[in-house]
UniProtKB/TrEMBL annotation, chain A:
<dbReference type="Pfam" id="PF03591">
    <property type="entry name" value="AzlC"/>
</dbReference>
<feature type="transmembrane region" description="Helical">
    <location>
        <begin position="12"/>
        <end position="35"/>
    </location>
</feature>
<feature type="compositionally biased region" description="Basic and acidic residues">
    <location>
        <begin position="263"/>
        <end position="280"/>
    </location>
</feature>
<feature type="region of interest" description="Disordered">
    <location>
        <begin position="249"/>
        <end position="280"/>
    </location>
</feature>
<dbReference type="GO" id="GO:1903785">
    <property type="term" value="P:L-valine transmembrane transport"/>
</dbReference>
<feature type="transmembrane region" description="Helical">
    <location>
        <begin position="146"/>
        <end position="178"/>
    </location>
</feature>
<keyword id="KW-1133">Transmembrane helix</keyword>
<feature type="transmembrane region" description="Helical">
    <location>
        <begin position="190"/>
        <end position="207"/>
    </location>
</feature>
<dbReference type="InterPro" id="IPR011606">
    <property type="entry name" value="Brnchd-chn_aa_trnsp_permease"/>
</dbReference>
TrEMBL record, chain B:
<keyword id="KW-0472">Membrane</keyword>
<protein>
    <submittedName>
        <fullName>Branched-chain amino acid transporter</fullName>
    </submittedName>
</protein>
<feature type="transmembrane region" description="Helical">
    <location>
        <begin position="64"/>
        <end position="85"/>
    </location>
</feature>
<feature type="transmembrane region" description="Helical">
    <location>
        <begin position="40"/>
        <end position="58"/>
    </location>
</feature>
<dbReference type="Pfam" id="PF05437">
    <property type="entry name" value="AzlD"/>
</dbReference>
<keyword id="KW-1133">Transmembrane helix</keyword>
<dbReference type="InterPro" id="IPR008407">
    <property type="entry name" value="Brnchd-chn_aa_trnsp_AzlD"/>
</dbReference>
<keyword id="KW-0812">Transmembrane</keyword>
<feature type="transmembrane region" description="Helical">
    <location>
        <begin position="6"/>
        <end position="28"/>
    </location>
</feature>
Length: 280, 107
């Protein structure tokens, strides 16, 4: 650590300054996650172990009811995989920045990535490939996030274990998933996808092995892709009339539900556009 | 689940997390998901969270229960509304838990 080049050390400090305004939010999110984990079927050492290993808040919270219901391992792994899918897209964003590094360093870099850290890093608009101080900045951001997350989660697990179960604090884990959901709803097509997933999730709830999760997500992907396709066609049709830039509000009538959740952005955003800003 | 199974589950979950987080970093330039698929993947996490959260709050004992007597639903609606309005997670959790607890104790 002490032998790092000066540029990377300065980058690290800059990274810390970039993320520091968000650290209270990360702390509170970690605290709630920890409390919810302490109220699950996991013992305190198990909850701490899971949190330290996974380092993935939403996936941790999402898997708790599955542990409680004694679901088979594959359904738990599938849930973790789906909730983490956004990181596959994030990794595509990081790839051009760090592809020059060795494999172990790329793995370490990916492992410490989080939603907030990713967004803050990408906001810095570094050039591709090696840039002095870039790797330091990345680690300044992500490791600050990492440290605050672990401290707050473990604190939540320990404090939560002191509170009687009858207070119903386990429900805080369900509530804590809502911000992540709301933040990802940044277009009508996401709204439609989420609404459809919810509907399928409820209707298919009694299917075994949490198959409602698989069906809900597949339904949402299909609906989202259809929306994107329609929006793209709509944009193309309008293009000659408005040659500059058309804000796209195209969505089928089914999407006319309660979609005033977030400021609407156009439905055909590029895949690299990160819509979340909560750590996960 | 036995203790061993639980820890085995954690190891497997961690492996999945690392694979998803490092997917393109591992693959380097050799692999590129089609743009269309990448766009579609954006919908998956929100959908998965919705499938987990919504049934938990609209179902009571496997029965559809969309009324204010369902404390979890009332709490989730209040919390979501608060979060959209104030963008503050701690306040949101506090409001949600307050509605849930008051409903549970007094209604």
């Amino acid at each position: 650590m002490l032998r790092l080049p000066a540029a990377e050390r300065e980058g690290f400090a800059a990274g810390f300054r970039i993320i520091s305004p968000l650290l209270p939010a990360i702390f509170s999110w970690g605290l709630v996650t920890g409390v919810a984990m302490s109220k699950s079927v996991l013992t305190v050492p198990q909850a701490i172990g899971m949190s330290l290993m996974l380092y993935a808040g939403s996936a941790q919270l999402a898997s708790l009811p599955l542990f409680a219901a004694g679901m088979p391992l594959w359904t738990i792994l599938l849930t973790v995989g789906i909730v983490n899918l956004r990181f596959v897209i994030f990794s595509a964003g990081l790839q051009p920045h760090f592809s020059y590094l060795s494999l172990p360093r790329r793995i370490a870099l990916g492992y410490v990535n989080g939603d907030l850290g990713f967004v803050m890093f990408m906001n810095q608009n570094f050039g591709n490939g090696y840039v002095p101080g870039k790797e330091g900045t990345y680690y300044g951001i992500t490791l600050s996030n990492w440290a605050v997350w672990h401290v707050s989660t473990i604190l939540g697990i320990v404090l939560g274990a002191l509170v009687p179960d009858s207070w119903g604090l386990g429900f805080a884990g369900t509530l804590a998933l809502i911000p992540m959901m709301v933040h990802t709803i940044n277009s009508r097509s996401t709204m439609l996808a989420v609404a459809l997933a919810s509907l399928i999730g409820v209707l298919a709830f009694d299917l075994p092995y949490r198959l409602n999760l698989v069906l809900g997500v597949l339904g949402a992907l299909a609906a989202g892709m259809v929306c994107d396709e329609l929006a793209a066609r709509h944009a193309k049709r309008l293009a000659p009339a408005h040659p500059v830039k058309v804000p796209i509000a195209a969505s089928p009538p089914a999407a006319a539900g309660p979609n005033a959740v977030e400021p609407q952005k156009d439905a055909v955003h590029s895949a690299r556009h990160p819509s979340e800003d909560r750590r996960g | 689940m036995s203790t061993f199974e639980i820890w085995f589950a954690f190891v497997a979950m961690t492996a999945i997390t690392i694979v998803t987080r490092t997917f393109f970093l591992l693959a380097g330039e050799r692999v590129a998901l089609p743009q269309r698929l990448q766009r579609a993947l954006r919908y998956a996490p929100a959908a998965a969270l919705a499938v987990i959260v919504v049934p938990e709050v609209v179902l009571l004992d496997h029965q559809f229960a969309v009324h204010l007597g369902n404390h979890k639903l009332a709490a989730a609606v209040a919390a979501t509304g608060w979060f959209i309005w104030r963008k503050n997670m701690i306040e949101m959790i506090a409001i949600g838990m307050a509605v849930y607890t008051l409903g549970r104790l007094f209604l």
